[in-house]
Amino acid sequence: MHAVEVEGLCRSFGRQVALHGVSFRVRRGERFAVLGANGAGKSTLLRILAGLLRQDSGRVMVAGVDVAAEPIEAKRRLGMVAHDPWLYGELTAEENLRFYAGIYGLPESRVGELLEEVGLAEHAHRLVATFSKGMKQRLSIARALLHQPEVLLLDEPTSGLDARGRAWLRRQLEELSARGTAMLIATHHPAEAMACVRGILLEAGRVVARGSPEELLAALAGEGE
Question: For a FRET experiment, which of 78, 90, 122, 179 has its CA 20 to 30 Å from that of 14?
Answer without folding.
Answer: 78
